[in-house]
Design goal:
single chain; alpha/beta; TIM Barrel; 2 domains; nine-stranded mixed sheet; 23% strand; globular
Length: 452
C-alpha cells in the first residue's frame, strides 16, 4: 500500500456533518473531568502526562475501569443472576497491569490464543478462572490450556473436538507432574443466526460467519461425544457480535440458546455453564447503549429457569470508556479548501477509524475561549490516505504543539497497534487518584529491529 493508492481505502472514516449535536465526551466518560480549563484523568492533568511521557500516549483511569465491573455485576445480581462470572475478554486490552487489576476485582477471563493464556499465567491467574474461545486453536495451545487446568474450552468444530480429545488422552510428559491432562471440560459455541453488531466485521452470530456450529450440527456433536472419556460436556456458548446497542438481539439469542439447553437435557446431556459471550455496546458519540438493567433482565428471564451458572465475556464495555489516546498537533495545513490537522498519532497506533470507520470524538485537552467551530480532517503522518481519524470535524482553531484527546480508546486500541511505517508503539499509563504509573514503556527504535 502507499500514498498514491487512494482508490481502495476500505471503510470510510467518519464525516461529521453536524458535530455540534455530539456532546462533550467528558460528560459521559467516568474518570475524566475538567478542573478549570484543564482536562484531568481522575486527579492528574492529561497535559502533564503528555509532557512527562510524550505522545502518542494511552491513558487509563482505574476508577473508570473498576466501576464498570461493579455496575455490570450489580445489575446481574439485581436481576436474580447471583450465579454469574464475568470473564473479561482479554483481546479487548491485554496489558498485564490492567489484567491484574481486573483479577483483583474478581474477574475471570476469556482468551482466544495461547499468548493470552501466557499473559494470564504470568500474573498468577489460575486455570479455573480461564475460558478458552476461538475458532482456530492449535494443538500446542490446547495442550498448554489443558496443562493449566482451565475452566472451559469453547469448541467450534467437530475436528476441534477430536483434537481436544486426543490431547486430553495423551500420556504425561516426562518432565510433568506424573499424570496426563485428563478429561477436558468443554462447551460448543453455537451459532444462533441472530444479526447483531455495530459493523459487519464485528457481527459474529450469523450462519455465514466463521464462528461456531449451527444448532443441528452442534446437537449431533453433543450426542456423538456424550459418553466420551476425554471430553466432558459442561456448557454451551454463543457470541453474536460486538458493540450491540439494542436489547432485542440479546433477547432473541438467549432464548434460542436456552431452548437448546432444554433439548440437550432431554437428550440426557445436563450442562453446568451457560456462556453468553459479550457484545454489550458503549457510547462513543451519539449512541444510546442498552441499559445494564435491561440487558441483565433479558438474560435472566431465559437463564434463571435453567439453573445454569452464567458466564459473560465483556471486554469493550469494561475497558472501552476507561481509556483515551493523547496526541499532539504537528501542524495545521490548509489546501484545496480543506483544513488538515496533522497529529503525531496514526492508524498504526489506533486502527479502529481506518478499519471500521469508527467515530471517536476528538477534543483539545485545554479549554480555551475563541476557538470557534472551524472544521478539519484530523489525520496522522502514516503514508496512507486512510490514515485519518475523522473528517470535517468541528475541532475549532488549534495550534501546533497542542495536545488533543481521542476518546473511547480503551478497547481495541493498543492491542491492535502495529509498527507500520517503522513507527514505535506508544506508551501506556494508568492513573489512580492523584498518582499515575507507566504500565508499558514506549518502544524504542531498537525495539523495531529486535529479532530481525
Amino acid at each position: 500500500m502507499g500514498a498514491g493508492r487512494s482508490r481502495d481505502r476500505g471503510p470510510e472514516v467518519p464525516n461529521v456533518r453536524d458535530g455540534r449535536s455530539i456532546p462533550d465526551p467528558v460528560s459521559f466518560t467516568p474518570g475524566f473531568s475538567f478542573r478549570g480549563r484543564r482536562l484531568c484523568c481522575e486527579g492528574v492533568a492529561v497535559e502533564k502526562l503528555a509532557a512527562r511521557a510524550g505522545t502518542p500516549l494511552y491513558v487509563y483511569t482505574k476508577a473508570g475501569l473498576t466501576s464498570s465491573v461493579r455496575r455490570l455485576s450489580r445489575a446481574l445480581g439485581s436481576a436474580g443472576l447471583a450465579r454469574h462470572t464475568l470473564c473479561y475478554s482479554v483481546k479487548a486490552n491485554s496489558n498485564l497491569s490492567l489484567l491484574r487489576l481486573l483479577a483483583g476485582q474478581g474477574c475471570s477471563f476469556d482468551i482466544v490464543s495461547g499468548g493470552e493464556l501466557f499473559r494470564l499465567r504470568q500474573i498468577g491467574v489460575p486455570g479455573r478462572r480461564i475460558v478458552f474461545s476461538g475458532v482456530g486453536k492449535s494443538r500446542e495451545e490446547i495442550r498448554e490450556a489443558l496443562d493449566a487446568r482451565i475452566l472451559l474450552f469453547n469448541v467450534e468444530s467437530e475436528s476441534e473436538i477430536e483434537l481436544l480429545a486426543s490431547e486430553a488422552a495423551r500420556p504425561p510428559r516426562p518432565e510433568g507432574s506424573g499424570f496426563g491432562a485428563g478429561p477436558a471440560a468443554a462447551a460448543i459455541r453455537v451459532n444462533p443466526d441472530v444479526q447483531a453488531g455495530g459493523h459487519p466485521h464485528i457481527s459474529t452470530g450469523r450462519h455465514q460467519h466463521k464462528f461456531g456450529l449451527d444448532w443441528p450440527a452442534a446437537r449431533r456433536a453433543y450426542r456423538t461425544h456424550r459418553h466420551s472419556r476425554w471430553v466432558r460436556w459442561q456448557g454451551i456458548s454463543a457470541h453474536i457480535g460486538s458493540q450491540i446497542l439494542s436489547v432485542a438481539p440479546f433477547r432473541r439469542a438467549v432464548r434460542r440458546l436456552a431452548g437448546y439447553v432444554r433439548v440437550l437435557a432431554r437428550d440426557g446431556i445436563q450442562l453446568r455453564y451457560f456462556d453468553f459471550g459479550g457484545g454489550l455496546g458503549i457510547r462513543y458519540a451519539n449512541e444510546s447503549p442498552v441499559s445494564l438493567s435491561a440487558y441483565a433482565q433479558s438474560i435472566a428471564a431465559a437463564v434463571r429457569p435453567l439453573g445454569c451458572h452464567l458466564l459473560l465475556e465483556p471486554g469493550r464495555s469494561i475497558v472501552g470508556p476507561a481509556g483515551v489516546l493523547l496526541t499532539r498537533v504537528l501542524n495545521v495545513k490548509r489546501t484545496g479548501g480543506k483544513t488538515f490537522v496533522v497529529v503525531d498519532a496514526a492508524m498504526n497506533d489506533f486502527l479502529r477509524p481506518a478499519l471500521y470507520g469508527a467515530l471517536h470524538p476528538i477534543t483539545p485537552a485545554m479549554r480555551q475561549r475563541g476557538r470557534g467551530s472551524a472544521r478539519a480532517d484530523v489525520v496522522g503522518p502514516v503514508c496512507e490516505t486512510g490514515d485519518c481519524f475523522v473528517q470535517d470535524w468541528p475541532l475549532g482553531e488549534v495550534e501546533p504543539g497542542e495536545v488533543l484527546v481521542i476518546w473511547g480508546a480503551g478497547a481495541y486500541g493498543f492491542v491492535a497497534a502495529s509498527n507500520y511505517n517503522s513507527r514505535p508503539r506508544p506508551a501506556e499509563v494508568l492513573v489512580s487518584g492523584s498518582r499515575y504509573r507507566f504500565i508499558r514503556r514506549r518502544e524504542s527504535r531498537h525495539d523495531l529491529i529486535r529479532g530481525e
